[in-house]
General L-amino acid transport system permease protein (Litoreibacter ascidiaceicola), 518 residues
Amino acid sequence: MSDTHAQTVAFVRETEIPQSPPPALEAGAVKWVRENLFSGIFNTVLTLLALYVVVRFAIFVFPWFYNGVWEASSRKECLDILREAGKGTGACFAVLVDRWDHLVFGFKYPQDGYWRILLAFLLLIVAAGPALFSSLPRRMLLFTAFYPFLAFWLVWGGSLWLPLTILGLIIATMLVFRLISSQIPVNIRQIVSGVIGVICGAGLAYLLFIGAQELVFIANSVGTEGMIAPIAYGVFWIMAIFAFVFCVPMGIFVGYAIYNSYEDGGLVSIVASLLFGYLAFVYLLSPIWMALNSIIPIELQAVASRDMGGFMLNMLLGTICVSLSIPLGILLALGRQSPMPLIKGVCVVFIEFIRGVPLITLLFVANVMLAYFLPPESNFDLILRVIIMITLFSSAYIAEVIRGGLAALPKGQYEAADSLGLDYGQATRLIILPQALKISIPGIVNVAVGLFKDTTLVSIISMFDLVGMIRGPIQNSTEWTSVYWEVYGFGAMLFFVVCYSISQYSQWLERQLNTSHH
């Protein structure tokens, strides 16, 4: 070794060498395109064909969008503007500007009340936040519980004291439940449950009597030669079975409560408190809120249900029906899994009956036939009838989805709950149901999206939702006749935004609840 090498000091780098960038074909958009669009010969051919179709479609549609007319008072004026400008084709978007309020709010809702609908929608986002995102403060759930009563006042108007009185009576009913479940002796619970059973039986008999009386009267007035008489009698029996399906579970729960009253009065307390709530609503609601309104009047202009329409009606029906059908579907799914044959049988009959009947049939029943099974002087709101039918329809499908989630749980989860000494209610609430709901999220969201789109069926029973407004007042007007693509495309865009948002939230929720380690 030379003297020069012997005296050389070894080099030590003081800074870290920066990482080399990955190859261009293995990172970013280029990698995604190569792996997903041009990964093979067959995939490349499909990609090129799809690009060709997209380009041809864009060439055809882009001039139609670009040449669109936004300021005109009729379709004829739109065509004149396009002709004067020398444009061969173009959309008539002026219909959206001219009928914007009709598409969103309907044509009968007061224009000075549009702010109420917008405020109710904004508050809906605030109220749904703590229920959808666990990171928000739990105290916000108090506003979530209060929101339905505030939204009812904003949308329908009237006195503020009416929804507040309803809220107060609900709280009073809950207090009565706690009192009965903790203080009332067992023998008193037996008496209460017996009285409730008698009331349920009398209510069923009265319901069937009213329906039979009305339908027989119609059949006799028409005569036996036509087809209406046998149809009326047939519909009567269908509705009788339908009413039976709803009334029998109540009696079964009452009987089950009587059977278990010697050791646990929980179900008796529930039914008794519901009876108290019903009597309180019948005899105390009107005097209380009218007295409060006379002392401190807080009112908005009242709006009848028949005056609601547009996309607002779709949002109203979709939000309420989804919110009600999920808990009802959970109860039906648990009832179908119940070891008690009567409860299981009733839930099975209800679910299979509802799933076997088209929704449009139930809507016709709500619109026409349901009134025959109510007292002659009653005025059952049409929107409320539609909400009940859509909720029952969707709850049957949600029940089947949740039942699938319950069946997917391994048997060890039930055995683990038993080993911890949990009773049925605790095991279901703490262990079984949370896991079943997590498994059922995609199916529940699928039913919710389908339900929201099915709200357009109410246009068939003369309710002017978004589709009803397009098919009725807009296209039948002399100004905007034969305008199709613009209005239906706008409606499709609104539904897509809502349904896509629901789908994206469900995917986010699945990622948040994912507990797998792979």
The domain at 309-517 is CATH 1.10.3720.10 (MetI-like fold).
